[in-house]
Amino acid sequence: MLKKQTVWLLTMLSLVVVLSVYYVTAPKEMGDSPAFTANEKTDKMKEEPSVAIEEEGGKDSPSTAGETGDDLFMALRMKIEDERSRLRDELNAVVASANATAEQKNEALNKIEQLQALSEKEATLETLIKSKGGYEDVLVRADDDQVRVTIKAKESSAKSANEVIHMVKKEIPDAEYVTVEFQPAG
């Protein structure tokens, strides 16, 4: 049987290893992380209507000058992935923290699982919408109770937007606000 001192020493060594790994992999800048901007996003989301169909050039149009549609979709996907990666790192830091309570650690683990499930639902929706609608590209972004769908298509109609909204509601029943935006295919 191990002595108490040996167990204590092994515990401290494992803690040092975990903290070292966290320090090496932690993001360097925390000021622009989603945790610091979450309240700003939720305030903006509450003001939008529950269902909206937007054409390119709308008030929240993600297009920027000089980017093609493919570059735009790729840039948005990368931005979303970066934000979620930072948030996952922060949650992992809470789980690895010696100062966090068991409740805080469980909450962080639950949020990590929710992020993973949300990412999987988004990918499923993108594939489903793309295959059923025959669209060139689809980007689905879900935040809390809002889902934004950007579709690259030659034609847009209220009927196709309605079908997309039904697909989103079926896959993500908690979505209160669904926005469908069509961008012309080039």
From TrEMBL:
Residues 40-49 have a biased composition (Basic and acidic residues). Pfam families: SpoIIIAH. The chain crosses the membrane at residues 7-25. InterPro entries: SpoIIIAH, SpoIIIAH_sf. Residues 32-69 are annotated as: Disordered. The keyword Transmembrane applies. Residues 88-118 form a coiled coil. Keywords: Coiled coil, Membrane, Transmembrane, Transmembrane helix. This is Stage III sporulation protein AH. It comes from Geobacillus genomosp. 3. The lineage of its organism: Bacteria, Bacillati, Bacillota, Bacilli, Bacillales.
